Amino acid sequence: MIRTGPITGAGPLTQAMATAASGMSTQATRMRVSAENIANATSTAGTPGGDAYRRKLITFDRAVDRATGAQLVRLDQVRPDQRDFRTQFDPSHPAADERGYVKLPNVDVLIEQADLRAAGRSYEASMAVMQQARSLYLKTLDILRS
To answer: How far apart, in whole angstroms, are the C-alpha atoms of residue 104 and residue 107?
Structure first.
């Protein structure tokens, strides 16, 4: 069947591209948060007895794009990790408390690196979906022109 009227609504390719784009956006944010955590893995307080850098956690939420009907993933929130700080006895450290202990960040670099790698792979998967949908969209346009 040949369609002769105007194309209305969003098709599966548009929905796939919207879903992939939302995935790429959220995974990019996830990578930035993990990189920030890694960069601050040794950041202690600037004042005696103060808190060290607190790891940031990211949560996602599902949504539906009203224009396309596509299922999207969105950033829900970036919040501090409430796990306890590690402590180290170092009375000469400028951030040491009255007992000589320094609060160290609650960041585990290996966990952050694994999260960074997983986010990168998810980003790449969304990019592949985007490229495939774009390719199919362009082929469809070529068919319609001929």
So the answer is: 9
